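Weekly puzzle thread! Below is a chain. First person to post its structure in token form gets bragging rights.
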Amino acid sequence: MELVFPDRYSLAAIDAGAYLALAEADRPAIAADFFNDAFWFDQMACSSPRLVVWCGGENDVAAASSLFWPGLEGELERRAYVAQPAVSVRRLGFSCEVATDRPLSEHVHGRYFTRLVVPSLDGFSREHCGGGLFFESAVGSLEQLVPFITRRDQTISYFGFARRQLEDLAGMLMARGVERIVPIGQALKFGRFWDGHDMLMSFGRYIHIITPSARKR
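Winning reply:
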């Protein structure tokens, strides 16, 4: 049995209000979890988030974003993270190219990562260079992500949503895309179910036995 895993795209969805409601002492844990999802393989894992989507009102989104990214930068400093020069150059070149042909409301090139804020997900291109480049956008609610999702999308890592909200999202997605919805920090966690496949069922071997039915008299 052979399974083929195509090129995939993944994103993170964060409830802005829930993030703001966190105690200041609890926010570094989210940064650490996000680091684990995005930076271990320079964002090249199929399940690593390349787009961060905030859900909530405009003021909450702005406030949450202003806390989240400095927190992530602090986590990178704490870990003494160093990107390879080639990765940094590729990220810079790609971000400048994007800035010339896509509408951006903000372009922030930092020491550890680059953040490109897109005003809308309409017509969003999934082309990406990896290496610490994050697109960022916002929607009013989680269900507004549905029209954006395509068959190429694999994992949504999330924070701040109740299970019922996630189940409702999965029901609305149906065959559009997304095979995994996991908490931030578990995007790279491999398990029995991956990319829409049940690994145990896919690689198992079964022997089917049929016994004769009792004769009718």
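Puzzle host: Confirmed. Bonus trivia for everyone else. The mean pLDDT is 91.
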